[in-house]
Specification:
There is one protein chain. This protein folds into 2 domains: 1-32 and 237-258; 34-235. The protein is an alpha+beta fold. It has helices at 2-24, 238-257, and strands spanning 47-50, 55-62, 67-69, 72-78, 84-97, 108-119, 124-137, 142-156, 163-165, 170-181, 190-195, 204-207, 217-218, 229-230, 232-234.
Length: 258
């Protein structure tokens, strides 16, 4: 009986270590841990909003676990399903300016709390799925209802010098990307995917112009005027989860030696 119990514990430990190793690979899957109000999953039949630099999109979240923001995952698509090579992802975290403090009547990103430029080779991209999706550019109001099918997930882990978030606080994440058409190069356009999951106020957008204050504008569906939110999730750092798995394995090993 004791041998059976030990074998079961070893098997459980092996599974936990295996799961931890999978997390270290950076992918986020349904059911995986998160440290925000809830994952804002992609609307598989929604819109992709142009977020090619210098355009920046931003959405807010509420922290549910104090600690490092070192792992960010978001969903995106390529206009007309063009092949692409991701060159850079710019991330920024901002303090929240609530609607009550904005004369324009909506909440928006405030002072920058941290920002990073992540080289494309450090971003793990995988195909998530497909659906009939539209393309939207908030500058020009260009809307193409049936533009592309493929949905991609971008996984960024171990962000250097990560920001420390505090439980219960609302922050803003902004994202902007640079990319080229691949493998031959040339122009390409990527869009951050909208989500059916809504939190707090609308997402916002702006264009970065050096030496000027960013003028954040509400992001709304050009067809209905309804609020748009973006598809992303902030998760515990993989190293923490891996150590949890290894800790269980170590406990089993100690028990076996007794």
């Amino acid at each position: 009986m004791r041998a059976m119990r030990t074998s079961l514990m070893v098997a459980v430990a092996a599974v936990l270590v295996g799961l931890a190793a999978q997390v270290v690979l950076a992918d986020w899957n349904l059911g995986d841990p998160f440290k925000m109000h809830k994952p804002q999953l992609p609307d598989m039949n929604g819109l992709d909003v142009n977020f090619m630099s210098p355009k920046i999109l931003a959405d807010d979240w509420q922290c549910t676990e104090t600690g490092k923001v070192s792992d960010v995952h978001f969903w995106f698509s390529s206009r007309q399903d063009q092949p692409f090579i991701l060159q850079n992802v710019h991330l920024s975290i901002h303090k929240d300016i609530p609607a009550s403090e904005n004369p324009l009547g909506y909440s928006m990103p405030g002072p920058v709390l941290g920002q990073w430029d992540i080289p494309g080779e450090m971003v793990q991209v995988r195909r998530w799925g497909e659906g009939q999706q539209g393309w939207f550019d908030p500058n020009t109001q260009e809307l193409i209802p049936q533009d592309h099918f493929n949905v991609w997930q971008a996984n960024i882990v171990r962000i250097p010098d990560p920001f420390i978030q505090e439980r219960g606080t609302i922050y803003w994440l902004d994202v902007s990307v640079n990319a080229i058409g691949g493998p031959a190069g040339g122009p390409v356009a990527l869009g951050w995917k909208t989500s059916l999951d809504h939190f707090n106020d609308d997402a916002t957008w702006t264009d970065f112009i050096a030496g000027t204050n960013m003028e954040w504008q509400e992001l709304r569906d050009p067809r209905s005027g309804e609020s748009l939110d973006m598809a992303f999730v902030i998760t515990p750092e993989p190293a923490t989860l891996a150590l949890m798995g290894l800790g269980v394995a170590g406990l089993v090993a100690r028990r076996r030696r007794k």
